[in-house]
Design a protein that fits this description.
The complex is a heterodimer of chains A (314) and B (224). With 314 residues, chain A is of the alpha+beta class. In chain A, a hairpin with a 2-residue loop joins β6 and β7. Chain A is elongated. Helices cover 22% and strands 30% of the residues of chain B. The N and C termini of chain B lie far apart (48 Å). In chain B, the strands form 3 sheets. Chain B has a 7-stranded mixed β-sheet with strand order 5-13-6-7-10-9-12. In chain B, strands 1-2-4-3 form a 4-stranded antiparallel β-sheet, covered by helices on one side. By secondary structure, chain B is an alpha+beta fold. The longest helix of chain B is centred in the N-terminal third of the chain and has 17 residues. The chains are: A alpha+beta (314), B alpha+beta (224). The interface between A and B is large, with 54 and 58 residues.
Chain lengths: 314, 224
């Protein structure tokens, strides 16, 4: 029996453990998974003095309400999140990007994400979790990972194996910026679409549909007209691929995506914009902007440098 | 052989082996897949072989399109020993509770339910690849009479165990998931077992699969 644990009073809508994800498994149909918004995942770990590849709690929209039992521990929340901390008789409003110390009996209530989708709750320590293929990331579609591959449920108890001895309180100033355009690289079936269809794709606005989750983001908007074939022979997919099925509505593959797909690929989201893409909530407007491979590589390099810089300042 | 290499986004290579689907092209793809996997090139984090394509994705923090392409162009594809393929019988129940797209198929194919099943069951299908959701096998080739396109709008939820068709292929949905294939029946058999980390898939590329019909009662009693 572990003496340090937390109980889940309210699980939230889609709360899971995530880490850096698992690789080398696409060929048997197991996707990357891992934290959707990688930058916020890394910052969360850094704020509580964890190894950067540690597991954190990822939540979407409404997050969990947890009650902690055990010796003192730090926690931090990242993203654009409204939450509160309940200590004995006082309840205070929490601030993202700051670590706090909680002790036996304290509660953390993640009320909701604000005009975004995902947020992260990191605890300064090591959760007692099952690893599958070197990752504890939960893939609820294939029931893989810790917690039997299922999202958090009410009444569950999660144990901690270890608590960090470094309990320094940390803080950083970070603002999640929104972007108007999602940059994309032309897909391998770009020429399946009519001139009009290509124009629609780059010039019109699409709306993020409610039917979006960790697997994919469905978009609604003007139809993208296909003049060659609305099916291709099923082939591999990667994160960020934009498929257009026969109904003309694009679907963007996200971290828990199927590894194989048979709809034409009109484009692929540039890696630099992935973290911000996944934070676009249903109803958000998306416009696509074409960039080439070398620009995409440079932009990602800059984004990565910025992430490392942010981490080094914490 | 690879006919063309292009980029799929900024973190993957798209190796094109042509447009035909047959065992000979598919075994070329598998050869490349196995050889490259063995070489453990720094930065490559996934390989996805399919009928006639191989997608190689990499960590953009560690390598680039140019570097991976150079490596793939130079790689020596070794002749691999034939892997042991096995023949598996998969029970499938095509009761109306499960065959969600039978009406659609009857209309598109202009065949009765009985004819569709007669053309589908008790035949040998080759497993070209596995994937989509954990362990899903892509099997072929179906009789020309029962080939249909995917649904116009994929379903948000396809039940676990669904046996479905599209074009010359059949598959089994190993988990409840979104999907656009025409659903013909359901198998009570577990095709994927994540507790076996080294061999989670029941059906692997190269295997032969035969679908055998079972009744609704047999289906219900299958796992008892």
């Amino acid at each position: 029996m572990s003496s340090n644990y937390f109980d889940i009073i309210r699980p939230g809508i889609n709360t899971t453990f995530q880490d850096k994800g698992r690789d080398h498994l696409y060929h048997i149909g197991i996707p990357f998974s891992g934290a959707m918004d990688n930058r916020n995942y890394l910052i969360a770990n850094k704020l509580v003095n964890n190894n950067l590849d540690s597991a954190v709690i990822e939540f979407a929209y409404q997050g969990p309400h947890i009650k902690y039992s055990g010796e003192k521990i730090n926690f931090a929340v990242t993203g654009d999140v409204i939450f509160s901390i309940k200590k004995k008789d006082v309840e205070i409003e929490g601030k993202c990007y700051e670590s706090y110390q909680i002790e036996n009996g304290d509660e953390v209530n993640i009320i909701s994400t604000n005009k975004s989708v995902y947020g992260y709750l990191a605890l300064g320590g090591v959760f007692d979790l099952k690893f599958q293929w070197n990752s504890c990331s939960i893939n609820t579609k294939a029931n893989i990972g810790s917690n039997d591959g299922k999202k958090f449920d009410v009444g569950q108890r999660i144990n901690l194996k270890k608590i960090n001895s470094n309990k320094d309180i940390k803080k950083t100033n970070y603002i999640n910026t929104k972007i108007e355009n999602i940059r994309v690289i032309k897909g391998t079936n770009f020429d399946y679409f009519s001139e009009e269809g290509k124009k629609v794709f780059y010039e019109k606005e699409f709306t993020v549909s409610k039917l979006s989750d960790r697997m994919g983001m469905r978009l609604e908007g003007p139809k993208i007209d296909n003049i060659v074939n609305t099916n291709i022979k099923s082939e591999g997919l990667i994160k960020g691929v934009i498929q257009v099925p026969a109904d003309g509505n694009p679907i963007i593959m996200l971290s828990d995506h199927g590894t194989i797909g048979g709809y034409p690929k009109i484009g692929v989201v540039a890696s630099v914009d992935y973290d911000r893409l996944v934070q676009m909530s249903p109803g958000s407007k998306i416009k696509f902007k074409e960039i080439n491979l070398s620009d995409a590589e440079t932009l990602f390099k800059l984004y990565e440098m910025e992430t490392q810089n942010l981490l080094s300042q914490i | 052989m690879i006919k063309n290499i292009s980029n799929l986004g900024d973190a993957a290579l798209y190796c094109d082996f042509g447009n035909e689907v047959n065992k000979s092209i598919n075994s070329q793809v598998i050869k490349y897949f196995k050889t490259i996997k063995e070489k453990k090139f720094e930065g490559i984090n996934n390989l996805t072989p399919s009928y006639n394509k191989l997608i190689i994705s990499y960590d953009l923090k560690k390598t680039t399109f140019k570097e991976v392409k150079k490596f793939i162009e130079k790689v020596n594809i070794e002749d691999l020993e034939k892997t042991n393929s096995k023949t598996l019988e998969i029970p499938v129940c095509c009761h109306e509770n499960f065959s969600m797209d039978i009406k659609r198929l009857e209309e598109i194919l202009k065949l009765s339910r009985e004819k569709i099943l007669e053309n589908f069951l008790n035949k040998e299908y080759f497993c070209y690849m596995t994937g989509f959701i954990a362990g899903m096998p892509f099997l072929g080739d179906l009789d020309e009479n029962i080939r249909a396109q995917r649904l116009e709008t994929p379903r948000v939820k396809v039940p676990k165990g669904s046996v479905a068709l599209t074009e010359q292929f059949a598959n089994i949905y190993t988990f409840e998931s979104p999907g656009g294939w025409n659903i013909l029946g359901n198998t009570p058999l577990d095709v994927f077992d994540s507790s076996k980390e080294d061999k989670p898939n029941l059906i692997n590329p190269g295997d032969i699969v035969i679908f055998k019909e079972i009744s609704l009662d047999q289906y219900k009693n299958y796992n008892e």
